[in-house]
């Protein structure tokens, strides 16, 4: 979903990158309209500072996605071709797709019409909490409550301590990461009645404690995750909690802001987001029986992060843990300084010892069994200063780049069975 502010640039990004491997027909951009802005508590319309005859406008919020999907006809098209679920993902959270297969399984097993993905959350952490709200008349719903509303709500509902950690060390209310899995059939039925309208709210940012003047104009907006509020009490709404290392590493802070984050709190930067991918893959391989060295700590753009072996694979190699277990056998080990890139559907790791860089690229009908000791100088991580404008921006915001000193790069472009040894 785009708006006037982002539509043309989004389209340009997709076209200039060949839709990142997708067919253009697979991508549908839905543009939301803007709404009028308000400049004060009395809801006076905010005028454009450059033209007093125009009213300021801003996007209506990501809750518009429901009405746009309905009015565009996309939901019916998806339903007619046999699709059953709709996944809503937002934020630049690359780890999300590691958690989706299991979460989708939960939706199917529990017959959830709406399934919110969540992660363990510390009390008063600045992330919305998944709650079960019960009315005095007994009606109840499972819904996200924003973090700045959760503690006051609890205190006003008979919990004098508000939002506190329980015996697990976390809040009883898991953190909402704004990823939804919705069953398509009931979704269409509901939107046929509501048109996808979501309850609106106003969230002004005030200049000071007097709360009389706004920092900037505000507007009516709506949130995607408030969709369950429109559902009847009989609707099956639930949530799935995943460990943070597997499901949540958003990239939303620039290097300067990330460097100011207090020690022990997540940076949520391009640096930490990429390192989180390597950590997740390393931990998954560990759980599959691979000996993966512990990480070291390094500082990039003022952020002290764990640096695990740089392990990545294409989704076709493994979508689930059972996929990985079926493709890893014997005694395998990967050193901390290593880089492993797997690009192929049928690549088997058997008794492999890696201390360096190894890239395996195989045709879908090529079965490659890799084993033995692979040692080379590998890829060296070099620090980059985000202020160094001689370096491309996408590298500067990471704070590092790879110096590909030495690697073993093997490609298999034909069908057949192959062995890869040192």
From TrEMBL:
Its cofactor is Mn(2+); Mg(2+). The keyword Hydrolase does not apply. It catalyses: a monosaccharide 1-phosphate + UTP + H(+) = a UDP-monosaccharide + diphosphate. GO terms for biological process: UDP-N-acetylglucosamine biosynthetic process. It comes from Cuscuta epithymum. PANTHER family: UDP- GLUCOSE PYROPHOSPHORYLASE, UDP-SUGAR PYROPHOSPHORYLASE. Its EC number is 2.7.7.64. Belongs to the USP family. It comes from the Eukaryota. This is UTP-monosaccharide-1-phosphate uridylyltransferase. It is an enzyme of class 2 (transferase). GO terms for molecular function: UDP-N-acetylglucosamine diphosphorylase activity; UTP-monosaccharide-1-phosphate uridylyltransferase activity. Keywords: Nucleotidyltransferase, Transferase.
């Amino acid at each position: 979903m785009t708006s006037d502010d982002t539509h043309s640039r989004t389209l340009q990004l997709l076209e200039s990158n060949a839709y990142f491997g997708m067919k253009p027909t697979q991508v549908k951009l839905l543009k939301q309209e803007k709404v009028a802005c308000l400049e004060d508590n009395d809801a006076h319309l905010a005028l454009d500072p450059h033209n007093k005859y125009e009213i300021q406008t801003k996007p209506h919020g990501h809750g518009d996605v429901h009405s746009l999907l309905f009015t565009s006809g996309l939901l019916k098209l998806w339903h007619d071709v046999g699709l059953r679920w709709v996944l809503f993902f937002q934020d630049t959270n690359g780890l999300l797709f590691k958690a989706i297969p299991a979460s989708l399984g939960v939706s199917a097993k529990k017959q959830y019409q709406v399934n919110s993905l969540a992660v363990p959350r510390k009390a008063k952490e600045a992330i919305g909490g998944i709650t079960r709200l019960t009315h005095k008349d007994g009606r109840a719903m499972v819904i996200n409550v924003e973090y700045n509303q959760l503690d006051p709500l609890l205190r006003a509902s008979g919990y004098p301590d508000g939002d506190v950690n329980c015996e697990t060390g976390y809040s009883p209310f898991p953190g909402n990461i704004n990823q939804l899995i919705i069953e398509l059939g009931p979704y269409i039925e509901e939107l046929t009645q509501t048109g996808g309208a979501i309850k609106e709210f106003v969230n002004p940012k005030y200049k000071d404690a007097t709360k009389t003047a706004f920092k900037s104009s505000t507007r009516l907006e709506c949130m995607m995750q408030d969709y369950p509020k429109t559902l009847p009490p009989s609707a099956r709404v639930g949530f799935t909690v995943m460990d943070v290392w597997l499901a949540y590493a958003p990239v939303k802070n620039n290097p300067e802001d990330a460097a100011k984050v207090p020690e022990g709190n997540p940076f949520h930067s391009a640096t930490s987001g990429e390192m989180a991918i390597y950590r997740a893959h390393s931990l998954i391989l560990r759980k599959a029986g691979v000996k993966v060295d512990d990480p070291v700590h390094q500082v990039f753009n003022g952020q002290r992060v764990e640096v695990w072996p740089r392990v990545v694979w294409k989704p076709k190699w493994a979508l689930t843990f059972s996929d990985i277990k079926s493709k890893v056998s014997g005694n395998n080990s990967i050193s901390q300084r290593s880089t492993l890139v797997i690009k192929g559907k049928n690549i088997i790791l058997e008794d492999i010892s890696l201390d360096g860089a190894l890239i395996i690229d195989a045709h879908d009908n090529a079965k490659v069994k890799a084993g033995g000791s692979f040692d080379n100088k590998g890829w060296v991580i070099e620090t980059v200063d985000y202020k160094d404008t001689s370096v491309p921006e996408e590298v500067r915001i990471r704070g590092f780049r790879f110096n590909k000193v030495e690697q073993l790069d093997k490609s298999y472009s034909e069908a057949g069975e192959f062995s890869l040894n040192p």
